[in-house]
């Protein structure tokens, strides 16, 4: 349905859309996501199940698993209560993800998160247990098109490249509960593992996604190689979001 998102002073001004209550402790990190493309492909669940820790259930929609390639721009990244700083707080990111659940809390599992900021990569790997990797990246605006390029440079990690352009093609809307659009995007946790086999949940919070339909021309897309699978040769399901302000909590043990 058509949707005009409110602009409260904090994402915490609206919480009734959440699938479970906010964590009891204070949030630890704030950030804003800009010019974001969701490009999703269906894959058989049996392809992805061996790549997910056994403690987690691979989430499916009508028995179908999905993989997302998500390029965007980060800004205002800062831990509580520090202000944003230019050398840490603004950078490009592209993640490859699928969907998992445990304990009734569905979330995101990342195969890789490419970022053009070595400091942010180091911090996220250490404190959030996420597979961030260094990359050379570029975003440019050409009219209403957004051109995006990423070349992975992280030593010891499989190579991966993305080159394409995308743009919104319709008005902002809020996805309806129960739809595939909502299932793919309205998730308020990520899951991560460490070298000792432990699994962590990181809670996040934001307003409902201000989605728009989108189109994309993707010339190169090899970023999924780190997950040891190939994307099917079918057009992706596409969504765009201009901006989302997000709060994140420190990860805790999920089991």
Give the arrangement of secondary structure elements.
Layout lengths: L28 E15 L1 H4 L8 E2 L6 E15 L6 H4 L1 E12 L2 E11 L2 H10 L4 E11 L2 E8 L8 E8 L11 H6 L3 E5 L5 E8 L4 E11 L15 E12 L3 E2 L2
Parallel strand pairs: 5-6, 5-9
Antiparallel strand pairs: 1-3, 1-12, 2-4, 3-4, 4-5, 6-7, 7-8, 8-11, 9-10, 10-12, 10-13, 11-12
Question: What would your notes on this structure say?
Answer:
- This protein has 255 residues and is mainly beta.
- 9% of the residues lie in helices and 47% in strands.
- It has four helices and 13 strands.
- Strands 1, 2, 3, 4, 5, 6, 7, 8, 9, 10, 11, 12 and 13 form a 13-stranded mixed β-sheet that branches.
- The N terminus is likely disordered.
Concise description?
Strands 1, 2, 3, 4, 5, 6, 7, 8, 9, 10, 11, 12 and 13 form a 13-stranded mixed beta sheet that branches.
Report the portion of residues in β strands.
Answer: over 45%
Helix and strand run: EHEEHEEHEEEHEEEEE
Global mean pLDDT: 93
State the helical fraction: under 10%
Low-pLDDT parts are: 3-8
Tally of helical segments: 4
What class would the helix/strand composition place it in? mainly beta
Instruction: Quote the distance from N terminus to C terminus.
Output: 37 Å
State Rg: 17 Å
Largest sheet geometry: 13 strands, mixed
- The gross shape turns out to be globular
Number of strands: 13
Keywords:
9% helix; 4 helices; 13-stranded mixed β-sheet; mainly beta; 255 residues; disordered N terminus; single chain
């Amino acid at each position: 349905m058509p949707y005009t998102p409110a602009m409260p002073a904090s994402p915490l001004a609206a919480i009734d859309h959440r699938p479970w209550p906010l964590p009891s402790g204070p949030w630890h990190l704030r950030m804003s996501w800009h010019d974001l493309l969701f490009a999703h492909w269906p894959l058989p669940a049996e392809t992805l199940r061996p790549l997910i820790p056994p403690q987690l259930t691979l989430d499916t929609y009508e028995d179908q698993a999905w993989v997302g390639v998500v390029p965007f721009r980060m800004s205002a990244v800062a831990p509580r209560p520090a202000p944003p700083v230019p050398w840490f707080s603004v950078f490009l990111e592209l993640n490859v993800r699928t969907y998992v659940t445990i304990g009734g809390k569905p979330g995101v599992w990342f195969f890789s998160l490419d970022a053009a900021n070595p400091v942010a990569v180091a911090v996220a790997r250490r404190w959030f247990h996420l597979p961030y990797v260094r990359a050379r990246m570029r975003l440019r605006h050409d009219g209403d098109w957004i051109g995006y390029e990423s070349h992975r440079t992280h030593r010891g990690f499989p190579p991966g490249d993305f080159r394409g352009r995308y743009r919104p093609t319709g008005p902002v809307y809020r996805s309806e509960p129960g739809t595939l659009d909502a299932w793919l995007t309205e998730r308020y946790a990520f899951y991560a593992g460490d070298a000792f086999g432990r699994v962590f949940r990181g809670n996040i919070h934001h307003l409902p996604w201000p989605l728009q339909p989108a189109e994309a021309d993707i010339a190169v897309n090899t970023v999924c190689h780190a997950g040891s699978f190939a994307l099917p040769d079918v057009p992706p399901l596409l969504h765009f979001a201009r901006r989302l302000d997000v709060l994140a909590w420190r990860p805790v043990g999920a089991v």
